[in-house]
Design brief:
Number of strands: 23
CATH class of the domain at 2-94: Alpha Beta
Bound molecules: adenosine monophosphate, glycine
CATH topology of the domain at 2-94: Rossmann fold
CATH architecture of the domain at 2-94: 3-Layer(aba) Sandwich
Helix content: 25-40%
Shape: globular
Structural class: alpha+beta
Largest sheet: 5 strands, parallel
Length: 436
């Protein structure tokens, strides 16, 4: 079966790499892909929102199934248009993708389904939000040290959630979203919610809308610099499994988070099929959902797929056909895996592109290591940087320290002008405590 993967990040390289291990796969195409997918698979020069082009390509190349990596095409309704053309596609419908595409929608489903989440209010205008702040948290009672999170409703490339620790920061966040329109239409609505203390974890599930298969827990590192300092990024590294989530907690999350959410979606005629990713805060009162994503996490996908021993194509096909209940339990490599993201100088702010990268092959040859490309492209035979997050250096080891050592040994082989990474990926696994 020929497979088309849509996207160009580390997640999509990892998806293609894992699908390639399936005995039933034909040619793997990635649109638009990166240098890594271009060398190992076939890149297609079509952007993720060029639905007409992608449909034509899928029809002309006997694509058996299309796997959609990023949230933007999903929220624009790519699954609906593929289905309408009789093409098989892995990823939720436009309506179901609102779980990620609209924070207000997500909160309404969570509330309706009785899933634990931070208390919140939604607003359409800055005036409404300011009035709420004034009435609900009067200055005379609460002072200026106020911790709340202000979020733009729509997609904002991971930047739309502003964690605030003072009244001034909250007012500024409201202003940025609603008056400055920093996130464009994503700021047509916003929510203000309580700030939750605790440890974050990512738990992903695959569902066909009826059966739910959870994947092992993972942890991301969203802040740019060591010890979780600095601005938020798309994710600077991840590891799996995480000791912050034990088997009992996994069971709890299945029962209290995924099952009621998937049922609520079905009941409201927005059947959810694809990857449901719960971003959780593990608080002293138990896990609470911070957000849902409707796709694999990037970089969580990379260490998860390094550990997956089951046939991903079979899993994808079973999901698309609504037959997840018929497949065997997933098998996982018990060894931990970590992914260290190497980034361009300046990221998550502005950065240069086109720097020549060396040493990827040497890194890839190390035992238990796979270098997944993200922001890279080929230029006259060289691999050059082409984005903020450039590579996801991923390694398996018998223990977390061994996996970490291998990943950082591989990082040392790779060079380009301005390359950097966090040095503490997976250190959280040593001191992880819920509610810490
Ligand atoms: P979101 O886009 O909603 O996942 O938010 C992005 C990041 O902001 C999360 O990964 C958290 O680090 C942080 N965050 C979001 N909501 C909250 C909250 N209610 N309490 C504490 N931190 C939060
Ligand atoms: N790693 C966070 C995300 O994919 O949104």
């Amino acid at each position: 079966m020929n497979v088309l993967i849509i996207g160009s990040g580390g997640r999509e390289h990892a998806l293609a790499w894992k699908i390639a291990q399936s005995p039933n796969v034909g040619t793997i195409f990635v649109a638009p892909g990166n240098a890594g997918t271009g060398v190992e698979f076939e890149n297609v020069d079509l952007q993720v929102d060029d639905f007409e082009g992608l449909i034509r390509f899928a029809k002309n190349n006997q694509i058996g199934v299309t796997i959609v990596g990023p949230e933007v095409p999903l929220c624009l309704g790519i699954s609906d248009v593929f289905l309408a053309e009789g093409l098989r596609v892995f990823g939720p419908s436009k309506l179901a993708a609102q779980l990620e595409g609209s924070k207000v929608f997500c909160k309404e489903i969570l509330t309706h389904a009785n899933v634990p989440t931070a208390g919140y209010q939604s607003f359409r205008t800055a005036e409404e939000a300011e009035l709420y702040l004034k009435n609900r948290f009067p200055q005379e009672d609460h002072g200026d040290a106020l911790s709340l999170v202000v979020k733009a409703d729509g997609l904002a490339a991971g930047k739309g959630a502003i964690v605030c620790n003072s009244r001034g920061e909250i007012l500024e966040a409201i202003h940025r979203i609603s008056r400055d329109r920093e996130f464009g239409e994503a700021g047509n609505r916003m929510i203000i919610e309580e700030k939750l203390p605790g440890t974050e974890a990512s738990i992903l599930a695959i569902t066909d809308g009826r059966t739910i298969v959870t994947l092992p827990p993972a942890q991301d590192h969203k802040a740019a610099y060591d010890n979780d300092q600095g601005p938020n990024t798309g994710g600077m590294g991840a590891f799996s499994p995480t000791p912050a989530v034990d088997e009992e907690l996994m069971y709890w999350v299945e029962e209290k988070v995924f099952v009621p959410t998937v049922h609520a979606m079905k009941r409201s005629r927005q059947l959810f099929s694809g990857v449901l990713y719960a971003g959780l805060m593990l608080t002293k009162q138990g896990p609470k959902v911070l957000e849902y994503n409707v796709r694999f996490g990037d970089p969580e996908c990379q260490p998860l797929l390094m550990r997956m021993q089951s046939d991903l194509l079979e899993l994808v096909n079973a999901t698309v056909d609504g037959k997840l209940s018929e497949i065997d339990d997933l098998q996982w490599d018990p060894r931990p895996s970590i992914c260290v993201v190497m980034a361009s100088e300046g990221y998550p702010g502005s950065y240069d592109k086109g720097r020549v990268i060396s040493g990827i092959d040497q890194a890839d040859r190390l035992d238990g290591v796979k270098v997944f490309h993200a922001g890279t492209k080929l230029r006259a035979g060289d691999v050059v940087s082409n984005g903020g997050r450039v590579l996801g250096v991923t390694a398996l080891g018998e223990t977390v320290p061994e996996a970490k050592l291998r990943a950082y040994q591989a990082v040392k082989e790779i060079r380009w002008d301005g390359a950097w990474c966090r040095k503490d990926i997976a250190d959280k696994s040593f001191g992880a405590i819920a509610g810490g």
